[in-house]
What we know:
Layout: H1 3-7, H2 37-40, H3 43-53, H4 62-75, H5 82-93, H6 98-112, H7 121-133, H8 143-158, H9 181-188, H10 191-196, H11 200-235, H12 249-272, H13 293-296, H14 304-320, H15 329-349, H16 366-399, H17 405-411, H18 415-439, H19 449-468, H20 474-488, H21 493-518, H22 535-548, H23 562-570, H24 632-640
Keywords: Nucleus, Transcription, Transcription regulation
GO biological process, one term: DNA-templated transcription
GO molecular function: DNA binding; zinc ion binding
Amino acid sequence: MSSEEFIQTPATVTASVREVDTSKDSPEEHITIDSHQTERTIWPRFLSRLREAFTLDEESQPEAQEIVAMQARITGPRSLQPWDLRRLQRAIDGFPPRPVADFLLYVCIHRGTDIFFFFDQGKLLSQIDEFYNDVQSPLRTDAGFISLALAAFALGSQFTSLEKPEGSQNRSPSEDGDPCTIFHRQIRTLIPDLIEMPSLYSIQALYLVGVYLMPLSALNSSYVYLGLALRKALEFDLHQCTDDPSLTDRENETRHRTWWSIYALERITAVKLNRPRAIEPSIITVPLPKPCPPIDTEQKFDNLIQQAANARLAMVLDRAIEIGNCTTQRARMTLYNQAEADLKEWKRSLPSHFKVFKVHPKESSYRGIFHLYLNYYYAWIAMGKSYTVTVVRYYLRTRLGATSNLETNSDKPDESVYALSSACIRAARKMLHLFESIATTGNMTRFSFTDFQGCSIATIVTILAGIIERNSDYEALVEFGLSCLKKMSAGIVTAQIGVRFVEALQKIADEAVAKLYAAGQSPQPPLSVGTPATAADYNRWAQWLSRANHQPRGDSSSPPPRAEASSILQQDDSISPYDPVVERTNTWVPTQPLLTEPSLTATTSTEFSEAPLLQGFQTGEGLFPLAGFGDEQTFLMELTGMDVLDFSQM
Length: 650
């Protein structure tokens, strides 16, 4: 067997894991950016400064060196036990052939990276190359690296639909399920290692798993993984500046970007799930992401501007939602005016070309820019979330005679409540118009919690606003929002039930409008609202996935023979690739916005059946459970965004 044949499938080299023993390495050899030792080597400088503060003379400090040596022995890498090696071997067995790995990493970087920093792309790709080519590589005993690679494969798998060759009508073997559980199953066996090991890769791996799980279990598993990543980042002191001279500029900037990526996503997600703040922003001392040539020149997808913009937006959002704690009109208006100024300044700070309709839909930056604006509009919604319900509630009670005049006057919303509600409603409508851009360019994907939750909350706010006033495009906007939600929820039972939640709210709103009209309190009759990868790269991925999902899932999988790996690469395109959510368009006009009224008209398609929701659903890994644990109804409320509207006041 040639070396070239040997590296195609990493499962064939797992025996080498048993041959690598790190127990003989000295602790000092592991003091790198991937080890927490980088923070602990400040002891000599700390003691030196302490002597200086006490006006003592500088002298040799053997006590400091002794502390460093003792700590290195405590926190240094432990010897791998036989059961550790078996778990690592099973995880490596789950690695795809090299061409498939390259394709998934390409998709992860160009489609999944979005506005975040997952890892130093140049470094990881170099280590992937080492992993596949060097059978003696120590990376094969590094649970952090193995987990990070598997998480990157899993995240890339979620976006393979965006790389489906145009015009293909074939379906993927896992179109109705999650195409990446094959990788997630292996990562789960390594979670104890990730929690315990002092490694930057372990933090990044936990973070990537949290991102991967967001559309499947945002409330449960994903939120927990993001919390683990955040707390390990805090323990790793990523949130604080360090003057450790042993760290290079590249390593320092990697730490800074990793921190801001984790913090921003965790904070924004916590707001969307109505969860409390995890940490006080005042303890963060690291600077925002900034240019770093050693990293940037090797980045396959350079999204530095998006990273910094997202981090700044997270800080603005963190301050803006404090409006909900205000009890007086003056306090609310003061915070609202400040938040309004901050948000508008943030928007003005974006480069002039950062407009969805100015970016080609095929560009890797397209969805990232879309998400920046989506979160921008969400910030306005978050500020006025409960006040919209307050205004609608007051409107219904006064016009349907549900309260006395005395109660009506005492409960009347003040000017600040109306201002916040109006801003919330405007943002919701703009967000729905924003979604048309990804719907008409083939950039909508099932696996995006951000997309689904954003579209859901925008549709809900628009429905609520329609109780008070329904203009000419109300029906089209709501129908469009529901259509997008149905497409994004395909194959995800939890999301599909969430769509039914939104439809149930729509029916209640229609009933309220009908009641107002019957009572002569509405001038309008109720509107009836109806219910650079290549094609070959993609096909190799789809074919490998089909075969991999049919392999036995025992504790030890046999490596596929070389002949089988070769046949995967040589078969024609007849194997069905993954079907995207919507059809792509072949036209794009950069000088004109894509958000035009004609495409918002309600459709009469029978694409979505009115049959009972669970009819025809079968259990299995292809469909996702309602929730892993916790309260299912709470999860659905948070998935759709209903919880942030504070319906408890109704």
